[in-house]
Amino acid sequence: MPNQTATTMTTIEEIISRFAPKGKVKTPLTRETRLIEDLGIDSPRMIDIVLEVEDRFLVSLEDVDVQNTATVGDFLDLLESRAPRN
Amino acid sequence: MHPSVKSDNEHPEARLFGELDRCARRERLVPPVVRALNRYRADAPPGEWRDTVGRLRSHPVVMRLYEDPYTSWGFRKPRGYAGDAVLLDFVYGGGTCKPLLTGLSPFAGAVNRDLIQHAASAALRARRDFLGDRLAEALASKQRPHVLAVACGHLREAASLNPASPRPGRFVALDQDPDTLAVALADHPMLPIEPIRASVLSLLRGGRDIGTFDFIYSAGLYDYLSEETGRRLTTKLAHMLAPGGSLLIANMMPDLSGAGYMEGVMDWWLIYRTVREVRKLSAGLAQDYKVRVFTRPFTAYLEISR
Fold this sequence. Notes:
The structure holds two protein chains of two kinds.
Chain A: H1 2-19, H2 43-57, H3 63-67, H4 72-80
Chain B: H1 12-23, H2 30-43, H3 46-56, H4 60-65, H5 69-76, H6 85-92, H7 106-117, H8 119-141, E1 146-150, E2 170-175, H9 178-187, E3 193-197, H10 200-205, E4 213-218, H11 227-238, E5 241-252, H12 259-264, H13 275-280, E6 290-296, E7 299-305
Parallel strand pairs in B: 1-2, 1-4, 2-3, 4-5
Antiparallel strand pairs in B: 5-7, 6-7
């Protein structure tokens, strides 16, 4: 579902832009954009992003899965693998 | 133009780099570098400061500063995150950093001494001492109270407790880092520490009930949390208070001198909060909690009592 993926990407981009250090995010992000090296997302900012994503997409993301996400693409894949929570 | 002659038209970053060039000739490097970075940071818009930081770290004077193991540890983040417990041991003196301080060159030793004596380091030691006092008070205020240290680090505030201090009924030490928890456990054999490895996320989700507590405190965690996450966590922790219990949260304030060095050279970024911003962390609480904000030099404390 390319449209849904594009919408998800747009929302993720918006959330990341909100929490990443000022001046670090150069949109548009790609699947290959690295969360730490390119965007300066450290673990506290990742907490912000995960909480916001969970609220917006009504999903639960496991700590261990989040720790394994290195790129925007990894994050999108993780999100899309999670069914909305009840 | 001679480098010591300032021009009003000179770009602020060029002026900063000129000041750093001149620092190279000074006998003591740290004080003028810290002053120059603080001054520039105070005047520069946040985005511009971050851009400058990217170029700053290849300046020859700044590159020499990484010979200091404290600066280097902060910048390299061997544990994978900023402000870990080993870094704080440098500031407190002793503990896990001792092996890293042997065999230093005279230059590295001098840089280290100047940084550890700086007001920013003194503020961190004052925070440790204040929390130690409050911990002792909490232990004395009730028979065998239950204590929770959130993002406990090496629990250095507990070092000020003497063997005759009243003992807690429970002392839960919560941290995301297993190496840190191991040190906390090993270095405080007098305390009945229950180490729990947990992240802020898992704490917020509350998957595991760890009970209620008479005294909950957090020394450095909130310096890294956004307002939204901080508010959620404050609400969560307040709900874990036993009747009559209190929660104490520390947060560094924006007037912390040395922030320019911490960010610019050590890549150690804190979220500094004013008294008003610290109070906002309690915004999610119901009216039946008593909230107080007070300050000590460079540090604001949010105290919530149930």
